[in-house]
Amino acid sequence: MASLFPSTPHPNTDSEINVALEMETRNPVQNKRDVDAFKTATVQRRSEDGVFLTWEDLYVTVSNGKNGTKSILQGLTGHARPGELLAIMGPSGCGKSTLLDALAGRLGSNIRQTGEILINGRKQVLAYGTSVWKEDNRCLVLTKRSFVNMFRDLGYYWLRLAIYIALAVGLGTVFYNIGDGDGSVQARGSLVTFIASFLTFMAIGGFPSFVEDMKIFERERLNGHYGATAFVISNTLSALPYLVLVSVIPGAIAYFLPGLRSGLQFFLYFALVLFASMVLVESLMMIVASIVPNYLMGIITGAGIQGLMILVGGFFRLPNDLPKPLWKYPLHEIAFHKYAYQGMFKNEFGGKMFPNHQNGDDILRNTWHAEMGYSKWGDLAVLLGMIAFYRLLFLGIVKGTEKFKPLMIKAFMSKKNTQVMMNPSSTPLHGGKL
User: Fold this and answer.
1) Is the domain of 381 the same as that of 262?
2) Pairs from 401-404 (Cβ < 8 Å, separation ≥ 24)
3) pLDDT, tens only, 92-137
4) Of 27, 55, 63, 164, which has fewest CB within 10 angstroms of its CB?
């Protein structure tokens, strides 16, 4: 049985660490000699059923911003035997959850831990029941769960779908029946550009949900349930049906009310480009969410990146008029709006003859400065390739964060905590024994 009792407050410390942690068991560990004897006994009994868990001189500190660091646990020592009930009790904030997270190996990357944790007398990571899952089963379960969560969360896609439909009705009525006259060329170009720019731009509204997904992933990853690859795959697959809905339904309204190019094949291409653009924006926002977890800063960052891409996409400033250093090369070339605009322009004007004897191909070359060396399917292929690249980049960032962030935090905290961490023999604030 374990219990937590307040002790005499230590000066200049938070209330969270002004607690003495005392463990009472049937055979309590009294000193380091008892701990060593217990570890030896666990090695000898390793062949028996059960897991023997011991911990000694366990210290946990967390970064406290500009104020340096804060100690959560200091110098805890104790053990847990198989077949015995062990309770950790105490007031809120005294470090119970931190102790359990430390023993389970699921502390966050901004937390520093020292000391020795042994399982059956050896250093190893606690095994989880989910570790026997196959990767495809993990992806299947995660995809199903994510799909259900997206369905239940009105703000994830349903509210956005309603707004897209309202906006598409507005576009359809403003550009209603634009015809094929002299002014129709500019009107058609403006309409498809608005659709490719601002309908997709609104996908940043899902950023808060992306941040919540990342928080859940971080916790479950620390628990050993699944890895970054399963998370990225399931997140991508679960979102595709909803992205089809928000592309096809508003897209059909905005396409047929104004009277864009007739023919099912042209509408399908239009919907594919819109769908690819939606997926790209969501992929971009997932990348931002993995780097900037703050809601406001993340939305500002994502909006700024998209605004820059729209600026150099090739409509507000034609491609041949863009300044070549930086704006055309490389920004115009790497902006996905370039390929969305060109694909929709080619789909709308390519090979079409207008009543005033204007050739659609000439309009593409002279009015929109489109690159005619490849077809509209080449633009769609580039968009699909960008989707794969963005998702792989997202996966790489998540995996890189797992590997390098703890090392960076550890190096930073080592510099900040030299006195605290290099003097483990000082009297612990939590009583020292567990």
Assistant:
1) yes
2) 401/109, 401/290, 402/109, 402/221, 402/228
3) 888 888 888 888 777 766 788 888 888 887 776 655 444 445 556 8
4) 27
CB 17 within 8 A of CB 95: yes
Helices 228-256/135-152 angle, 10° precision: 40
- What's the rounded Cα separation, in Å, for the pair 337 and 83? 62
d(CA 336, CA 1): 61
User: H or E element: which one contains 59?
Assistant: strand 53-63
Is the residue at 264 inside a domain? yes
**Rounded Cα gap, residues 313 and 291, in angstroms:** 25
Whether the Cβ atoms of residue 92 and residue 67 lie closer than 8 Å to each other? no
The pLDDT assigned to 16 comes to 40
Q: What is the spatial distance between Cα 311 and Cα 332, in angstroms, rounded to a whole number?
A: 9
Burial of 35 (0-12, 13-18, 19+ CB in 10 A): buried
> Is 107 a domain residue?
yes
Q: What percent of the chain has pLDDT over 90?
A: 44
| Domain stops at, among 81, 106, 126 | 126
Q: Is residue 330 reached through a cis peptide bond, with omega within 30 degrees of 0 on the bond before it?
A: yes
CB atoms within 10 A of CB 329: 12
DSSP summary character for residue 8: P
* C-alpha–C-alpha distance, residues 284 and 279, integer Å: 9
> Which of helix, strand or coil describes residue 325?
strand
Report pTM.
0.70
SS3 assignment, position 246: helix
Place of tokens 């049906």: 241
As a whole-number percent, the residues of the chain with pLDDT over 70 amount to 77
Which DSSP helix (H) or strand (E) runs through 103? helix 96-104
Per-residue confidence at 24, pLDDT binned at 50, 70, 90?
A: very low
In this predicted structure, what is the pLDDT of residue 268? 97
| Residue where the block lists tokens 């679960």 | 238
In degrees rounded to 5, what are phi and psi of residue 341?
-60, -50
Which bin fits 279, alpha (ψ -120 to 50), beta or left (φ > 0)? Answer: alpha
Higher-pLDDT residue of 30 and 156 is: 156
**Could you list the residue range(s) of the whole structural domain that residue 365 is in?**
131-409
Q: How far apart are CA 352 and CA 84, in angstroms?
A: 81
